[in-house]
Amino acid sequence: MSTRTLPLLFLNLGGEMLYILDQRLRAQSIPGEKARKVMNDIIATMFNKKFMEELFKPQELYSKKALRTVYDRLAHASIMRLNQASMDKLYDLMTMAFKYQVLLCPRPKDILLITFNHLDAIKDFILDSPSILNQVDETFRQLIDTYGSLSDGEFQLIRQTLLIFFQDMHIRVSIFLKDKVQNSNGRFVLPTSGPVPWGTEVPGLIRIFDSQGDEIKRTEFVHGGNYLLPLREGSFDLYGDRVIKLGTNMYSISRPVETHMSGTAKNTASRIKENAAPNPLAKEELNFLARLMGGLEIKKPLGTEAGFRLNLFTTDEEEEHAALTRPEELSYQVVSIQADQDRERNEELSRIMEEFDVQEQPRQSTSKGADLLAMMDEL
Length: 379
Hints:
About 45% of the residues lie in helices and about 5% in strands.
């Protein structure tokens, strides 16, 4: 397991979350000013400097429930609210989209290009907010510094770690089903055509070498696909052509997106259910959540600023039906931590629990965005 995987997982899932929220804000005809405020607040929270510093520290991946808790807090960092069923659907779409991208990336290193595609698109959401753009650019530089010098083997370990994280998730997504890149059981279809990875050759030739390393024979074979050589390598710089399209916004063309539990997912629900027995990693997971969530405070609308509810379903009835029919084992409800019995014998755990408390304090700022940023500066 790679200890460098978490930033890539978080940023790519976060990018997919922003794509979906942007599409739903437009579909529900939320006024432009409110929609921009939601996107700006969430992106500013997501790329908070202290939060990124904690995120980029080498660490193991944690449970799906722990990460889901972080995204729940992140989605509610502004005036928008999501019901449980909509949050479940949002998380399903995020995870299945990035799983598809990880499976199809031509070479392990291209996961970094997928991440850059997400960040490039995020910057387009905040072109009118220079301070938030600077936050995203700083994260770009952290990515380049952290991953620019990694070997192919280290990227392969990152890709393997991501695939292990996603291996039990087989949610059917309407866009993937319509495009015939996902089967009815929720598993993806890998293509046998298109560009081969940069630095490799189109399959169809076997070279045989002797003990001295000299080529002595060539044999051709029919590969059965329609492969092409890539025109150029994608840019790993702050600005540039990434070449690959994985990680770009697939919701830019408006079309309904539905999710469905596959038969495989239902049958394996008990296998992936979180164990209720004491977890020896629980304290580490508490530390992880406490550190990360320090930068993800929920703020209630102030003064005359009206909040609103976003629905990821076409109607409220569909949302209610989804909430009733979703298997309990597959509903990643926000992690609830009960540690009252540990407070006397574990002062450190007590301190961590206190960091989860959301304190509403009067402020003198003139706008909610400024209020949110001022709060983060004090963390």
